[in-house]
Amino acid sequence: MNDTQLYAEIINIGDELLDGHTVNSNAAWMSAALRGIGIPVLRHTVVADEGAAIVRALDGVMAETTHVFVTGGLGPTEDDRTKAVITDYFGGHLVFHQDIYDMIEARFRARGRILSPLNRGQAMLPDNAELIPNGRGTASGMIFRKGGRTFYLMPGVPYEMQDIMERSLLPKLAGQSGLRLIERSVHTFGIPESEIAEMIENHFPELRRDVSLGFYPSVKGITLRLKGKDGGELDKYVSGICEILGDTVVSLNPESMAEVVLTLCRERGLSLALAESCTGGLISSMITDIPGSSRVFREGYVAYSNEAKVNVLGVDPEILRGYGAVSEETVRAMALGARERSGADIAAAVSGIAGPDGGSPEKPVGTVWIAVSYGDRTLTHKISYDRGRRKNKEYAAHAALNLIRLALLADVRS
Amino acid sequence: MNDTQLYAEIINIGDELLDGHTVNSNAAWMSAALRGIGIPVLRHTVVADEGAAIVRALDGVMAETTHVFVTGGLGPTEDDRTKAVITDYFGGHLVFHQDIYDMIEARFRARGRILSPLNRGQAMLPDNAELIPNGRGTASGMIFRKGGRTFYLMPGVPYEMQDIMERSLLPKLAGQSGLRLIERSVHTFGIPESEIAEMIENHFPELRRDVSLGFYPSVKGITLRLKGKDGGELDKYVSGICEILGDTVVSLNPESMAEVVLTLCRERGLSLALAESCTGGLISSMITDIPGSSRVFREGYVAYSNEAKVNVLGVDPEILRGYGAVSEETVRAMALGARERSGADIAAAVSGIAGPDGGSPEKPVGTVWIAVSYGDRTLTHKISYDRGRRKNKEYAAHAALNLIRLALLADVRS
Q1: Domain parsing of chain A, residue ranges
Q2: Residue B11: closest CA among chain A residues belongs to which residue?
């Protein structure tokens, strides 16, 4: 391992980021990628696509920073002035690059399109930068050097930036940085942050002295993140934490809850079906985000209306009349119906009130019933979680997947 | 309208943001909210939850900035040191607030939970700040003043920050800022950025002189954003652009493609069913993200396997054998099957290769067939778009919704 310590900063240029129209997912992606090769990111800065703001950001780079990653402002349309400002900042000039022009033209020809004058501008490039090929677009990346630092300029389109990072920059930088703070994560579901913190405090009062511990709550559960220099020590704490937290620990990897459930099913050779009311297809979509899910996931029914619950899933109308659509009895019938119709080994069903309307004093918005039918048992669980329609769907989806997970784990134990 | 111009900066404190574990959605949300009340955001800065970094960020606020919004580091667990550092920065001390403690305790009691010593720390608050109530958590917001600027400190949990902004800060700041750059958006689907840019250039060569125009491409299509000071002038350009772009214009509002389709259905009193293969429930989930969608959306089938396409949707096995699951014939049969089984007025079906595996030279990854059955017609459309499994699903979902939209618009015209 190299002793030189590299530190990065990220500057994202874009009015759409400052306007709040676009969420800055580039900064997170780049940070994770750089962390992966031992280069910590010290700061993210987002500035307007405007000369003075860009120059101020470049001038304001921190003393410790060795590598600066800049995105934005290299697209084909006229609102991108960044290239000229930046070239000037590094003391160069934009000149026409015939080779780049020919490449862009070939790219267009291959797609049956004609090069527009706007795209011609993408062949105007600095005379003082190393150019980086962009495998997914017409805007080249650029490398400038100044004041002992290296500056990387990339387009703001995530797909193109990622191509440049993955194919050209990360392989070159990997192994150059000395620092690799080791990290372990513990993903939990169904237990409050303060309760976990207290349990850890009680069992491992010395933990905070040895490693740093952070808590990251979301609809996906609470993630604990331990960082330190000694991998063996981290592993010891992780084992200890897993022991005290039991089956509320979902995973130690960055995999999603859906991946955990799919893996459990695949290992056991089990097939899965879903009957969704208030989650409206979200659980199916989370499952099918995973490559290879087709080997486990048999079919999904989005039965939003009572009619669909009766016609598609075979729920007895008497149950719906007697207990209502959001009830333990209805989700149980939905799960059994989905299992029977699909022939799957496991079926989960969800019915609840996603909001903002439809709540009542007995069943407020956020009330969701979940059932999982597996073997000769049907587990049910009720949640109350109201953080707005979309978050309610996401939380209910995670809770449903978690109940499948618990059903499969319980099966192993019994 | 007030003449004073306010300018904001946002500072987000959080190791999880710099690590890339969490995408900074707070900055986007806050920026959009501030823009809505006429306060432009000049910069976003993300720094580590570490004293020196926080102080440097506070010291580095730009000369023009009048209001600084800071999030992060106010949670119940020990990794949040921010409060002490910031209180010290503004020359105050943390003192125990009995009234806040009583409120936190009452909150816990109402949920049947016992206050942990960690939560007690949340009642330690500065003696030199105005406290802002947090309706959704135990960490209070704070207002400090220094050097003619106002600093707002909020917890990093989006749901809590949003409560503080919406209930306390935005109403107070609304109407205080003089600048309101007027903005219009045109959302398009199915036409390349450079083509739109050229059409606008040709028809309205003077546009760039009068207003600023930005292009924002994503899987949702391309959004054009016009900004200027004269609303009438902007409206004139928007009408002109809509005329030249025709039915590739999806909407002038920030509504989603799913909302546009739902509105078209609702206006016509039509019901909708979906049969999804490669999108795996995503379209159903996008539709059911919208409150009130149950009045239009009848049912959804996620028919991932060939068996499901036959059993659930009634696709003739001969069609699957003869043309394959990803073919015009199969999606047509899926759409007709979904329409028949659900009794809905319109049904859309999607079948494709989401990747990363399953492609072939004739049908590479990203090949997706879409069918929409409505009235006595079934429209079909093929797309080729490969930017990774998740993006492929999202693009296919938007393309399917767009085909429903076009089918409904064509019906009006014919």
Answers
A1: 8-173, 182-251, 257-413
A2: A45
